[in-house]
Structures are given as structure tokens and as C-alpha cells.
């Protein structure tokens, strides 16, 4: 048996939290000896009966002798008295921690007891878990599982003490976060203490009414949900409200202002403002849900969802439309927000990335209705109307949102910070920060090696630049053009090769003049955008998975309706055609300034390997993961060059695809700027070629969806781990794939 984490653990107090932690220690044999001190003899007796402690004491000073971990699981106001009592007998290397829900007062109490300096083992903590029940019998071994524990190490705290406590809480399956003491108290005042105060206030308000019995009798879910926490222990909350007085009073003030504003909207019948405020709150609540659900993404191997694709799909057929274009959806919000007047958007992609952009503009004071069935109404605030967001803007998984917003925010007269998820946090941001700095912007990529978060300072006067883009990037081009809207003079961007031109097209649709001369795009700053209606076409990048799926599957027949076929996006069509796919484009028309068409692909011909023309690379930049699957099914070798950009997408798409393909038995060699894939296909032979595999998607939606399609030609099960990001661009992917005939199952791994 391995050495336990601790020799002797002493609990001072053994209520819900203390006894739950004691249960974890007992269950996992984390200590050689566990003792406790409580006032109640019955508690000690019961704890011994339950097998939680080896010995019980009534004097803390007796309990802590020779303990290497002391856990203060007592009301926070008793901290000073207990610390004073045990000071003389605490072992020199003992870790002393607590579980109180306020931290500044615990630290102050310790400082009063240790004026000469706090012990290195003193590390305050706060498990954010609880229940309305209290006492040693209420404890549960899984009380902390999937909950957060905040540690607030002090400058005096030793690293070893923090590390050991982290190990302890992780053994309880908690997620450990370290935070500054004041920050902890402020965060908790808003997220826990204020809601409790409000719940008590609401229930009390109803109790004071004469008809309260009726009201309680008829109260429905809303009252029950809102008031649940008013059933908590009054003594404990009384203590907390005083313990965190300063931060709570501030939170109450903030809430009073908010409530008064809502009251006034109702009083004066400001319907538009009220709907805007409620909509903002509703969207923020949904967004928080998303952020909470995304949390596991922040840890390297922790993922929230998995796909299992069973072999042997014998059919891949159907006629349907895929959701709206991601690039166009992002831009519709941005341009609608800074336009004069009201913009209506249809076909909007309700994927998580575009919703994050929506939230960002709501956070900057833009009133937006929807989305509902792909429809949005954006009440534009004009070029000078954006307001400073109260906190960092979260861009989820989206490089497009972050780079375009960087340009837009660089020109505003307020500071802002842009953050993102685990994948976005690794992506290069200097490519946009550098040209913006040349325009006079104050912008820093504050992550390691030029990665997010991006910190942008107020800068009302940008200068236009004439910039040669070092890489073919529509995002960088667009970010610069967006900053150029506010800059003095004419901003010109020259691209090495044409990239998607949605920004140029949409600016023109909003009445803004943009000149395109060959690869040079320019616009003059200082104009204004006029609201318009935007019809978002179906995303060819989402259609691509079905195009490839149909191309590799015998007798398949898929028609994708109303797909955007902007010539800067149609590389996938050209490349598949060159590989010999049976693909037809029909019913070409224009919708909302963008060309669209129906695309039909049939599985009637074996694909052949090709050398992909480099001029097609920017035009198919997002479709390569899917195209690699097609190449693996083709007869002969496919060679891709000139695609180094693939290495800095949501994941390193060259490496991640190569790793997965090799696992599935495909011979392929990644190169600096591309890949060589030895196709396993044989003319006229549609048999399965992919071996089973467990693919790590690296938080990249397109990796997950591409390998899903490989299931159409696999002879074993394919598992794809970390598929939650599929919802960023294609929320209905699994539904449509199933409908077409793919045997795909979704497993939620957490919550
Ligand atoms: C996009 C541009 C491309 C593309 C991304 C969307 C856009 O990125 O990969 O998915 O909307 O401008 P780069 O501009 O970095 O190539």
C-alpha cells in the first residue's frame, strides 16, 4: 500500500463539510490517523461509530498535537480563538487550512494570532459545495466531486503546502482553483452571498403578507427554484453576511441599481429598453451555462462529450440544408451592431461561437433580439455607440471573432480584454496585433508566445496603413479593415492570395464603400454603415463533411440545399471534382449578396489521389480535415503543399489528422506545410478501409466531424473524444448525419 498523504489529520469541527472531507480521507486511506475536536460528545461518538475518526477531543490543543494537517471546519468567527488555542502545540510543518466561505476575515484572524508572521503551512481554502442539511450525519463522500475548491494561498504560504492540499481536494474529485483573498470574497459576494440574501428577502416579503398561505399554496416552480436556498442555516448566513460585509454591501448596491432600472422601465413603459435588458440577462444566463459546460475544456485531457461511430452504414442519402455560415454570421452581428438603424438577419448560425459574439455585443450595450429560428434583430448603435463591457469578452473557440473584434475594439475609446477557450488560448494573435499597432493601437497579446488573452487600451485616433499581409488570412485582413473604419485616411490591405471576402461584401451591403483592385482591398475611414437585411447562406464548410461522406460511400446520394458558393470558398468543390467525385452544382442564385446553389454528390466513382493546386488552398482552408478523409479513400497518393496555416487553426490540423489517420491504418506523412496521404482505395472497390481508433479531437470541431465521416468506410468502431466543440459551428451535425444514415452515437461524459 502506498504511503498515505498525511500522518495525522485533525479536524476542528465535524459538521457537513468537515465530516464529508473526513469521509474522503477514510475512504481513500489518505491519513494514518484522523482525529477531531468538537464541543458535542455525541458528534465525536457518532463519528467514531461511522469510522471517520480514530479519536475525539473537546480541546483543540489536544487534538492537533503532531498533526501534519489541521482542518478548521468551524464558523469563521471562531478562527482567531482556535488558532490562539492551538498555536503553542502546532507542529512546525503542519498545514493549517479552513473551509470558511469568506477569506479576508480568516486571514485577519490568523494575522492577529501570528503578528510575527504567518506559518508557511497556513493556506486558507473554501470548498464551494454544501447542502441545506448540516451535521456529521449529513456528510457525503462525494459532496465535493465535480465542485470547485478555492484555495487562497498567501505570500507566506509554502508551495509544498498548497501542492499537498491540492492533492487532498483532488482526491475528493474537486476542481482546485487558486485565487487572491480579496478576489475570492468579491466573487463569492456576487455569486453566493447576494443570491442567499435575496432568497431570504423574497421569502420574507411573502411571509409578511396576510395572504401568505395562499401565495405559498399557489407558488409554482419559479418561487421554488428562486427560494430554495432560503432554507439554509440562518446562523451560518448571519455569520457570513457580517464576515463579508464590505463586499456584500457593494453587491447589494449594484443589485439595487439594477432593480431600480428595471422598475423604472416598467413604470415609464419603456418597452424596448426592458426587452433589451431582459434579453441581455437571458442571453447571459444561457452563455454562463455554456461557459460552465465548457469548463472541462480548460483541462488538457478532460472532455465533456464523445462520439461513437459504428461500422457498417450502408446508406448515406438525403436532401437537406446545413446551418448558416459561421463567417457570415459573425460579421452580421458586428456590422449590424455598429450600423445606424435596425438590421434583420435570417439563417443565422445558432452555434456557440456566433452566440459568444452575440453576447460580446450585448455586453457592449447593443440591444439584440433573438436568435429565434435563425432570426436576429440588431438595434445598431452607430460607429460611436458601443459601450465599455463590464468584464472580459469571451470568444469561445473562435479565432474569427477574436481577430475581427481586435480590430474593431482597437479603435474604441474604452479598454477591453478578449479571452477564449483552451483551443483559442493557444492561437497566434500577434498576426493581428502587429498591424493594429502600426495603426497606433495599444494592444497586447498577454498569453505566452503571443497568444490570448488580448488586452486592448482605449485609442480613439488610429491612422490608416497600407499593409502587405504576410499570410493568406481573411481574419487578419478583416480585423485591419474593421479598424480602418475608424482610422484617419485610407487603409489598404494586400493579400498574397485571395481569401474569403465576406467582410468586403457585407460592408458594401451596409452601404460602405470598399475598393478591390486585384489583391488590394482598401477603404476610407470615417464613414458610417446603414442597417440592412442579411440573409446568411448555408455554410459550405459544414456541407463539406456531407460532400466527403457521400463521395466515399457507395451508392450515396446527398443533396445540400442553398449552400453558399462564394468563389473564395469553393475550393472543396474544385478539389473533389479534380479527385473525380460525382458532384453537380445546380440552381445557382444570389441571396443576400452571396451566391448560393444546391450541391448534389453521389457515391458512384472511386476518388483518385491528386496534387492539390496551391491556389485552391485558401479557398478550401477549413475543409482539409474532411478532404484528408477523402484522400485516404482515394486510389493513389494525394499531396498537399502550401498549407502551413493549417497548423495554427483550432488545432494543428496537419498533425492531429495525421495522428488519427495513422491510428486508422492509413500511411501518411505530415510535412511542414502539408501532408502526403497514400490512399487505400481501389477502383470500383467500396469495401471498408479504416481500422477502429480512439481519436482525440483536440477541441477542434472539424477534426471531430471529419473523423465521423470516416465511419462510413470503417470496419471497426471509431471513438472520437472531445466532440463538444462541434456545437461551435454545427449544432445539428449528429442529427443530420444520423438522418443520412451514419451510425453515430453521442455520449455526454460529464454532468
Ligand atoms: C475565417 C477565416 C479563416 C477560416 C476561419 C474563418 C473568417 O481563417 O479558417 O474558419 O471568417 O474570416 P484565416 O483567416 O486565419 O485563414
UniProtKB/TrEMBL annotation:
Domain of life, per lineage: Bacteria
Residues at the catalytic site: 622 (proton acceptor)
Compartments, record wording: Cytoplasm
Catalysed reactions listed for this entry: 3-phosphoshikimate + phosphoenolpyruvate = 5-O-(1-carboxyvinyl)-3-phosphoshikimate + phosphate; prephenate + NAD(+) = 3-(4-hydroxyphenyl)pyruvate + CO2 + NADH
GO cellular component, one term: cytoplasm
Record bears the keyword NAD: yes
Binding-site list for phosphoenolpyruvate: 326, 399, 427, 475, 653, 702
E.C. code: 2.5.1.19
Principal EC category: transferase
One Pfam family, short name: PDH_N
Annotated GO biological process: chorismate biosynthetic process; tyrosine biosynthetic process
Major site of localization recorded for this protein: cytoplasm
All residue ranges annotated as the Prephenate/arogenate dehydrogenase domain in the record: 7-296
Residue positions binding 3-phosphoshikimate: 326-327, 331, 473, 475, 622, 649
Keywords of the record: Amino-acid biosynthesis, Aromatic amino acid biosynthesis, Cytoplasm, NAD, Oxidoreductase, Transferase, Tyrosine biosynthesis
Record family assignment: Belongs to the prephenate/arogenate dehydrogenase family.
Assembly mode: Monomer.
Function: Catalyzes the transfer of the enolpyruvyl moiety of phosphoenolpyruvate (PEP) to the 5-hydroxyl of shikimate-3-phosphate (S3P) to produce enolpyruvyl shikimate-3-phosphate and inorganic phosphate.
Name used for this protein in its record: 3-phosphoshikimate 1-carboxyvinyltransferase
